[in-house]
Amino acid sequence: MNTLFIGYNDGLARVKLTDVAEAQFVLQGPPVASVAVDPHEPDLVYAATLGAGLWRSHDGGATFQKSDFEWPLTWCATVSPCERTGATGALYLGTQLSAVFKSNDAGKSFEELTTVQQIPSRSEWSFPPAPNTHHVHQIALHLEDPDVILFGVELGGVYHSSDGGRTWAQTSADPDPHTLRIHPTQPNRVYEGGGASYCDSRDGGASWRRDLEGIPDEIRYFYSLAVDSGDPANVLLSGSRDPFSGHAVIPEMPVWSSLYRHKLDLGFEEITDGLPPRDETAMGTLAAGDAGEFVYVTEPGDIYRSTDGGRSFATVPYAARAARGSIARAVSFSPR
């Protein structure tokens, strides 16, 4: 795959990856928290923003137009790989405050899954840095069964439905879900990068196991995760000692982060080959492309690429510097 979308705090870049990165800013202004490409119609691309709602592209991400979805703080967009109406897939959105919406007409109209508001634990959801701003940070959809839906609340846990969202069960996953991923060929393999742990599921997200084997005890904050499309046991995970050093949010506090690779269900090993120094590097964002391919985008937008399953990385230089020097919130490959 050679087209990458990178969502920044001030817009969205479409990046062509060859020996260099040719970047074009295609949406400027709002922070872009999530990008989703319709797997059934790759020209249809969605950008979820924090402050300006949902934006859509009908030309593969070359241009975007604001949709009529009026909820401004839209944290995540996900398109179903198996549920579709006509040529396009069902679109799910997660918002702040926490709610889940669904569109069956390519984002023209939406229906809220109101059962989310009836979950008993909802009164306990709260985002600690800013109470009363909890949000649906992630949505994951089954590859073959449209009735299986997962969503994660920051901070409130991961919830699983096997009946299309009519009922929900809170799972045993980490309660601070930063990343949820379903393997593209193994529909029951689900992965979570949580605030305090890595968890995975072998039954479509109904039950989870925690695994930090090989990660030092002092590393107990995790953020971005990507899984090899060719190997469901090959998982990359970004980690830090705590959110403050990992995200560089407190002036004068030392910044530190690293990447870890899960090896054949035998635990994690640290990855350093080709990556920037751990000291003074804030946590970046991971994405997986073709089999064995990963990218890692760091502040202020440097791109590192692996083609050997994450064992080593190499910098992808920009043909012309395009990154704005802000945090990369979202990274997604386009199938084109």
Account of the 3D structure:
This protein is mostly beta strands and 336 residues long. The chain has a single domain, classed as 7 Propeller (Methylamine Dehydrogenase, Chain H), CATH 2.130.10.10. It contains 1 helix and 28 strands. The protein has a 4-stranded antiparallel sheet, with no helix packed on it. A 4-stranded antiparallel sheet has the order 4-5-6-7, with no helix packed on it. It has a 4-stranded antiparallel sheet with strand order 8-9-10-11, with no helix packed on it. A hairpin with a 7-residue loop joins strand 12 (135-141) and strand 13. It is globular, with a radius of gyration of 18 Å. The termini are close together.
Distance between the termini: 7 Å
Beta-strand content bin: 35-45%
- Give the C-level CATH assignment: Mainly Beta
The counted number of beta strands is 28
Poorly predicted ranges: none
User: What profile does the largest beta sheet have?
Assistant: 4 strands, antiparallel
Let me know the CATH homologous superfamily.
YVTN repeat-like/Quinoprotein amine dehydrogenase
**Rg over CA atoms:** 18 Å
* Helix vs. strand class: mainly beta
The domain count comes to: 1
Order of strands across the biggest sheet? 3-2-1-28
- What does the overall shape look like? globular
CATH architecture heading? 7 Propeller
What portion of residues is helical?
under 10%
Number of helices: 1
Overall pLDDT, averaged?
94
What name is given to the CATH topology? Answer: Methylamine Dehydrogenase, Chain H
Order of helices and strands: EEEEEEEEEEEEEEEEEEEEEHEEEEEEE
Topology readout:
Layout: E1 3-8, E2 11-17, E3 21-28, E4 32-37, E5 45-49, E6 54-57, E7 65-66, E8 74-85, E9 88-95, E10 99-103, E11 111-112, E12 135-141, E13 149-154, E14 157-161, E15 169-170, E16 177-182, E17 190-194, E18 198-201, E19 209-210, E20 221-227, E21 235-240, H1 243-247, E22 258-262, E23 268-271, E24 285-288, E25 294-297, E26 303-306, E27 314-316, E28 328-334
Antiparallel strand pairs: 1-2, 1-28, 2-3, 4-5, 5-6, 6-7, 8-9, 9-10, 10-11, 12-13, 13-14, 14-15, 16-17, 17-18, 18-19, 20-21, 21-22, 22-23, 24-25, 25-26, 26-27
